[in-house]
Amino acid sequence: MTTSKSIIQDTAVASTRLAFDRLLLAGESQTLEFKASFDKATVESLVAFANAQGGTVLVGVTDSGRVQGITLGKESLNEWLVQIKSSTSPSIIPDLQVHQLDGKTIVAIDIAEFPVKPVSTKGRYYKRVASSNQALNANQISDLYMQSLQLSWDAYPAHHARVDDLSPIKIERFVSQVNAGGRFALDAATPMQALEKLNYVQQGQPTWAAMLLFAQEPLRHHIHIGRFKTPDIIIDDRQITDTLFEAVDQAMKFIISYIAVAFEFDGSIQRKERFAYPLPALREALLNAVVHRDYTDGSDIQIKIFDKQITIFSPGTFYGKLTVADVQADNYRSSLRNKLIAEGFYLTHAIEKYGSGFIRIRKALLEYPEVEFTVEEKFGGVVATFTQTRSQPESQPESQPESQPESQPESQPESASSLEARVLALLIRGPMGKREISAALGQKEVSGQLNKVIRALQVAGLIAGTLPHKPGSRLQQYRLKSSE
User: Fold this and answer.
1) Could you give the 3-state DSSP secondary structure of residue 146?
2) Nearest to 110 by CA among 32, 35, 174
3) What sign for the dihedral angle of Cα 181, 187, 191, 197?
C-alpha cells in the first residue's frame, strides 16, 4: 500500500529530476558550471562566481551536460571543503549537496556573491563573464575592491599634490556654475571650503578628482582626436591635454568643425541647416567617455572622425555589473567608477542624471534614422560608434542661398533643432552677441525662438556666455565651449 510519505518522497524526487533536466538542457551560463570531477578548476569557478553574482558548480557532469556521476568516499565532501577554504583568500565556504540522478551521484556546490571582493585562489583572481571564467588584470582587481567597499578611486588623495596645484580661476568658475545650476549651494566667497564641502579636498590635500578637474598643470590623460580620410590617411590630428571640463569643450569644438552640414529647402524662402550627426548625442557619448573612463589605465580616449563614421573609444570596460545588454535597455542602473568626477559634471548640468547618457543618445537619434549607433566592449575599453547608413538629405551648393532672401516671416518659424544647428555653425567662426547672431540668421530682430534656443544650447553645455557673471549684460556674447 502506498503511504502519503512515499507519495511526498516520489513527488520530491520527480521535482528535483525535472529541475536538473532543465539546468542540464540550458547548459553552462553566468551562474552555472559543469565539472566531470572536483579539481583546482572547480575552485577557480567558485572564485569566479563569488566575484560576480554567485553560482553553482555541478560536479559529475561533463561539459556537454551529460550526467557521468562520481564516486564519493566517506570524507570526500569534508576534504573538498577544506581544500576550497585553504586555497581561497578571503576563505569561502560553499554549500555542498549530494543528488542522485538515474543511479548516479552528482554534487551541487553553491556559492553566493561574496560581500568583500575580490576573492582569489593561489594568488589569481577570476570573475564569471557569460559562461566562462575571466582572469582579472590589476585594474579590474582594484575596481572590484573599491566596488565592494563602495569606494571610488578619484576620491583618494592625489600623491604629492597640494592645494597650490589647483587653479583658483577654474575653481571659482566651477562654484559659479554649480550655484547657477541650482542643484547645490556653495559659498562663492570661500571656493576652497566649497571644494572641501564636496570632498574634492580632504584634510588639506586634493583628491585625484580635484586634480583632474581643477589642476593648474593638467594630468596627462589625453583625448587623442583626428579626422581620417581612410584608416591610414589622417587629415588633421590633435592631442588634447587639459582638465576635464575644458577637455570636453575642446574636443566637442574639434568634432563640430569636421561634421558636414546639409542645407535643406522645404518650400519656405530660407534654407535650413542640419548637421550630419545629432550634436547632443555626440556630446553625451563624449561625456560618457570622459566621466566613466578608467583613469588608472594610461591609454588615451581616442576619437576618429571618418567621412561616414565617428568612433569614440574610452579606456576601461563597463564598471560594476553593467553590461552592453544593460545599456541597450532604457531601465539600466548606472554604476559609477569615478563618483566625484561624475558629481562635478552633474552639478554643472553637463550631465542630467546618472545612468541616462545612452538613453539620451537614443532619444537624440530618433530624428536621425540614417545614423546607426552601436556600443561594444573591446580593446580593453568601450567603443561607441555612429555610422551613416545612408546619405543625408540632398545638400545644396553653398552659393545657392545668396540669390534668395535670408529673412523668414515670423509666421513660418523653423524647427528648434534646425535653428540650434545654424547657431552652432555660426559660432564656429568665433563669439557673437544675440543681435549679431540674429542678423546673420537673416532675422530683423532677436526672436523669442532664438532666445529659447540659446538657453537650450547653454543648458546642453554646447555654448557659454563670455560674461558668465553678467548673463543679462548688453555686451554678452556666446561662444562654443572651449578652454579659457
Assistant:
1) helix
2) 32
3) negative
